[in-house]
Amino acid sequence: MDDRTAPLPDPASIWDDRAAADYDTPGEGMFSAEVLDPTVDRLVELAEGGEVLELAVGTGRVAIPLADRGIAVTGIELSEAMVARLREKAGPDQLPVLLGDMTTTRAPGEFSLVYLVFNTISNLLTQAEQVECFRNAARHLRPGGRFLIELGLPELRSLTPGKRATVGHVEDGYVLFDTYDVLRQHVVSHHVRFAADPADGHEAALFRSAHRYIWPAELDLMAQLAGLELESRHADFAGTAFTGESPSHVSVYRLPSTP
Q: So where does this one cross the membrane (predicted)?
C-alpha cells in the first residue's frame, strides 16, 4: 500500500499514558527556561490581566508557569492521559481543565486571550476542522480579545522531485524524520528512539504523529472566516521578525471591539 493512502495515526488515540509521560522533559527541550520564559512573558503581555484559555493544554507545560505568574488559566484537552499527568502538578483550583475537543468544547465565561502553541492546530487533519478551531476560539473571546497560534512551516523546499521525507533532527539515540503528502497537506512525524551505543542493544521505539500543515496566508483566511483580524506575526515569542526563511511563526489575531 502507498503510504499516501495509508490510514494516518489517530490524534485522539496516540496521546496515551506512555506518550504523556514521554512528553514531559522538565528543564529540557520544550520545557527549558530558554523556551518557556519568552513564551510565558508574551502570553502575560497579551492577556492584559484578563482570564486565559489554552486549547490542547496537554500536561500543563505552558499553562502551569502562566498560572504561577498570577494569570487565571483554563484548559481544554482531548487526552485523559495528558490531563492525568497535568493533575500530578496542578489541582483543579489552580488550573481547571475541560476534557474535550478544541473545535467544539465550550469553556464557561469570556477570555481576553485564547492560545494554541507548539503546532497543535496541525493535529486537526482537515481544513474544515482547523476552521472550526478558529471559530471555537473566537466564541470564547471578549470583544478586543486575542487568539495566538504558534506554528511551524513545512520543509517543502527540501523535497526534490521523488523525495518524500525530510530529516528534522538527529542526536545520539534519537532521529526525527517527516514524510509528506503534499496533495492533502499532510505530514507524519516519525520519532525514532534507540540506544546511542549499539553495544546496549539494537531495538528501537517508534512514535508517529500526523499533522496537516497550514500556510500563513491560509491561516489568515481561517481567521477571517471566524471574524478575527491579524494583529501581528513574528518568527518566535521573543519578537524576531518573520521572514521567508523563518521555520515557524507566532501569529496573533484579534476579535474587533465592535461588530
A: none
